[in-house]
Amino acid sequence: MIASLPYVTAEEAFSVLRPGMRVFLHGSACTPLHFCSELARLHERMQGLELVSISLFGDISIDKPGFENHFRLNSLFVSASLREAVNAGRADFTPVFLSDIPDLFRNGVLPLDVAMVQVSPPDAHGFCSLGLSVDVARSAVNEAKLVLALVNPQMPRTHGDGQIHVSRITKAVFHDSPLPEVSYSAKARPEERKVGEEVAKLIPDRATLQMGIGTIPDATLAALGNHRDLGVHTEMCSDGVMDLIERGVITNRHKRIHPNKTVTSFAAGSRRFYGFLHDHPGFAFLDIDYVNDPHVIRRNDLVMAVNCALEIDLTGQVCADSLGTHQYSGIGGQMDFMRGAALSAGGKPIIALTSRTKSGQSRIVPVLKSGAGVVTTRGHVHFVVTEYGSVNLFGKSLRERAKALIGIAHPEDREALAREAFDRLHC
Predict the structure, then answer these.
(1) Quick one: angle between helices 398-406 and 414-425, nearest 10?
(2) At 186, is the pLDDT very low, low, confident or very high (cuts 50, 70, 90)?
């Protein structure tokens, strides 16, 4: 057994890279920013590398103009770090359900030559941890021919599927640096907090929660302080989960699968949250193709899946990934959990959004913007929540849906929406 790692510089580690290789780049709070900055510094020595990733946090450097002839970035979920590059044509976006990404790696659709991951130092048994982002990184490490590991003592060791033995690592680079932090609750506007309160009204005690990413899911968690015995089975978690665990609201006591465990595949939040997760036996960080499998999700009762949208049309089509033709994010796990919650006994798939954008445009629209992507179809949509209340569209006709959605639109937008509904649907 190899029990230690011989560390090299990033420049030495990159000696294994060859033109035309496809390289997985670890994401979210595990984004290997030191690797990214070193790739940028050494870019003249590299040609034709394809870098595949999901969400990337922080300044990744290699997305800037001038690097596109050396690195082709292919994002499976567009985040702020790559948004400008994707929309400028310097990077690609591949739409895919989060739960299907491991199959891309396994089945030869996107075979990986190299996985670049950020991990904890090895333990006494020679195992490093993928830490805060197991998600698709587990499959990437399994399938890649070579593994380059950025070993960071600030990376929490998490329980679950994230263990990597040092014998699997081709080259290891030691770099001690803070992990990217995110905070959504501090940014919440009053109307977003009100949406969270409206969502909380739909959630019963003993429910199992899935929360998407952003201010509204965090606002929902903040509104659940008087609930009891909640559970968590989610693709991601943030500080709000920690707060409810510390208050005894989240116990996971009544879950059918993984009782007494908070199940997630990645985490993003504050440094305090990362410290809370370190070696925490109450968390299970599991592979995304298990966590996000609708057939697994449905095994828990009362699954409450809370996800956000950029806009929704009067028939119930949900756009969550683009602003017209401008790519904003990705498909992610929204449909995985919308379907899983719908199949769960007593479950509720919930789309939550403010009635208007920050600039005052209605998010409830007669038709989606030209070029907008449909993430959740009108056949899958159930509950829709704004700060003006909630409606359930399941089983409703197009005309009934239009009437219901107009009722939770901003009051100043309802008359115009009603005229559009009459012209289109004669209601």
Answers:
(1) 170
(2) low
